[in-house]
Amino acid sequence: MITAPYNFVPLNDHIVTPYWGPAISHDKPFIDSQSGVLNVEITAESPIFVRNGEIRKKNKDGKEIINSDFNQFKSKYFIPGSSIKGMLRNFVEVMTFGRMEDKVNDVKYSVRDFNNNGIYPKSDISKEVQCGWLKFDGVKYLLTPCGRPGRISHKNLDKISGATKISEYYHQNSNINSDKKRSAKAKYEAFPFKKDGYAFKYQSADEPEDGIGREKYVLDETGQGKKGTIVFTGQPGVRKEKENQGKQYEFIFFNYNNPEISLDKDEEGKPHEIIRNLFHAYYDHDKGQQKDDWKWRKAQLLNGKPIPVFFRLKDYDKAPSSSNLLDMGLAFLYKITYNFSVKESIQNYQKSENLQYPDFADCLFGYIKKTGNNKFDSLKGRVMISHAFAEEGANPLPQKTDVLGGPKATYYPNYIQQELKNGQGKISGNYFTFKNQKSRIRGWKKYPIRYSDPISNPAPIIKGKVNEEVASQYSPLPKGTKFKFKIAYHNLRKEELGALISALTFHGNEGFYHNIGMAKPLGYGKISFSIQNKKEAELNFLLKEFECYMNYALAPKGITWLDSPQVKELFSMSKPSEKGDKILKYQKLDMENRVNDFNQAKKDGLALQDFSKIVDPVKISSKASISEIEQKKIFHSTQSSYFESLALKGKEDPTSLYRISVEREIAKIILEQKEVLIEKLNEKRNQLKLEKLNQLAQKNLEIEQARLEEKLSNPINLESVKLNSRAFESLEKAMKVFQVKFKNGPIQDSQDQEILKRKLKEIFSVLPEKEKIKWKDSSWENNQYYKKICKWLGESETKKILKES
Asked: What is each CA distance from 78 to 83, 86, 108, 208, in whole angstroms?
């Protein structure tokens, strides 16, 4: 069973959009307008910590100094109003079936999972990957493709690596015993020799590639071979030639002088999708997870220097182009991009009848949304929350040190909805990932409330030393600390105020708690709210109004609000449970002792189970009777029609008929012009496409001609022929590489003839006696050697060499 300190409320397929949303105003009150102030008290039911929000300073090494103190102003501890607002807004979004697509970044995640060939087929990727140079000119990114990369061994690089031999350097574990030393940056620093200006030839002429499309080369000391640049990537492990383990080759980016591809910004002014996905794959959005190589390469890129990248194409029958790029990375086997983004997977599942209407949380707390180029729609929130100041005399506990690692959304056993076949979380069939169109995210992430006191998650010990770099220091305030704050609300409907109170009080049910601040996975920040200036009867009336509306809104789906999977799961994670505590723990990741629960869970086919299926069912009391709910459905149906009529009335205009006729006439003219322009554009596009294809064909012809000329100009190489009983077969294989030299008749070059004659004499010397007799057979029509050698040397030279041997 997978354990985790977090879980999910299932993603709602139906979005509730209040019918009064378009009519919300700060100036025109609703008929039942609710305005006022809630005086609220927070009680810390466990130690609580909210980090000081001051601007972070840096030490002399440029590293940020993170303050371990509780947030404060003039020695007064407080929880920022924005933190409380964010927590409440998220709770309202979940319990009111809110819209999620605008809560996530529109990027595609990347994956490199060597344990799952269905998701990450290494051999296929090896055959597909191309290479090139990426640079940034200050406005846009430019990619210069270099085709398939070559490979060159560390042994061969020893010739130019200087006093320290690269093949020997990575025999030593001490040279790769940290992420920093395993990086490409460290390799460039350890071996600073010049990387460009070399020529290369095939390592073995009869076996130019390794079986999965990767060509092997060696330095060509004559300088006549293919020109290119040596490119280093990271060194993941110790190098052992005898066991054929560890990385033993680096890459060659060949100089083909291909045209640059411009990766322009999109219509909204955002970087090209490939660039956005590249930056996201290397955690450009999260400094804590960035590796040295990304920081180094990004700095080079932003300084205008080209950096080496690897990429794949959508269609390999077409040339590389900005629209034909699939994904990109800094290593040969980089993290490939999924087919669908998080936003796309949400849009494939969440539906709304009124896409233009705000959801419940947007109505309460406001929003700003982009609707087009430089166009925005916005609404100011009608709920304002003050800071929550702690009572006098609150003193922090001794400083704590724990690892507060954040979960990764790319871990699909937890973050993607899986089909389970048993109570232990075993999946049925294969894993769903963002590779599948029908996949959907698990939903709204929450940290379930712990039953026990907070636990610790100490920093790992590596080689006898505590790795403090991954740990956080914090000084929480003790359990029992009380905070007071105010919530001001303006022009809310009764249903909206009821939603706010329902979020604060768990719909008037006791024994449920929120959590806030840092270290929630460990049990810190468990809190309860108490509304001080409202009587219970008034609160229950407002809760009833909200409950009745939600049942009306969900009626088309055939479900009741309190019985919905979303509300049940949300409340299950908000009620402490001894059973729940047993699974609220991090999976283990201890590379030093080779413990990796994350990979093992995937090997075992496990997925995170719903929290409600592990703990005892929760009981949620309703505030409305069945008859009250049915009566309110009629009321809301009438109200919905009324607000719809207001919206239509507001659109009435006496000049609309004339304006519509003019608009139609203009639209007709525009359409005609558009068709003409489109036709011209298509003609131009086809012309450019044909020119591009002709250029590529000419380029390929030139490259192929250069290869042929290279083989014609260089003498034949028969060093790979082994002198044994099968030597002649080995010779035939080697000669196939140079068949261009005898394609139109016997070899004419005297140097080639001498090399071949010498090798033939050497082969004869090691042939068995029986084969030597066949070799000397002067009845040429029966001599198999004669027939084959004739292709290379001609009849007279062949007879001569066979007689003289």
From this structure: 11, 15, 38, 68
Q: Parallel, antiparallel, or unpaired: how do β-strands 64-65 and 57-58 relate?
A: antiparallel
Residues 485, 81: contact at Cβ < 8 Å?
A: yes
3-state percent helix, strand, coil for the chain, nearest multiple of 5: 35, 20, 45
The CA-based angle 642-648-653, given to 5 degrees, is 145
Contacts made by residues 279-282, CB under 8 angstroms, sequence distance 24+: 280/105, 280/107, 280/108, 280/109, 280/110, 281/109, 281/110, 281/329, 281/334, 281/335, 281/337, 282/330
pLDDT for position 756? 87
Residues 6+ apart with CB under 8 A from 594: none
> For residues 416 and 441, is the Cβ–Cβ distance under 8 A?
yes
CA distance 175 to 689: 51
CA-CA-CA-CA torsion for 525, 531, 532, 533, nearest 10 degrees? 150
3-state secondary structure of 101: helix
436 vs 661, residue with greater confidence: 436
Res 488: pLDDT: 98
Q: Please give the Cα distance from 531 to 538 (Å, whole number).
A: 11
Q: 554 Cβ partners below 8 Å, 6+ apart?
A: 14, 16, 97, 560, 561, 564
Residue 332's closest CA among 298, 315, 309, 307?
Answer: 309
Q: Look at residue 204 in the predicted model and tell me its pLDDT.
A: 79
The 3-state secondary structure of 189-249, one letter per residue: HHCCCCCCCEEEEECCCCCCECCCCCEEEEECCCCCCEEEEEECCCCCCCCECCCCECCCE
Enter the DSSP assignment of 620.
-
Question: Is pLDDT larger for residue 738 or for residue 512?
Answer: 512
Q: Which residue has the tokens 């922090």?
A: 396
Q: What DSSP character marks residue 385? A: E
Q: What is the mean pLDDT of the chain?
A: 89
Band of residue 266 on the pLDDT scale cut at 50, 70, 90: confident
> 127 by DSSP, 3-state: which?
helix
Q: Mean of the pLDDT values across residues 758-777?
A: 85
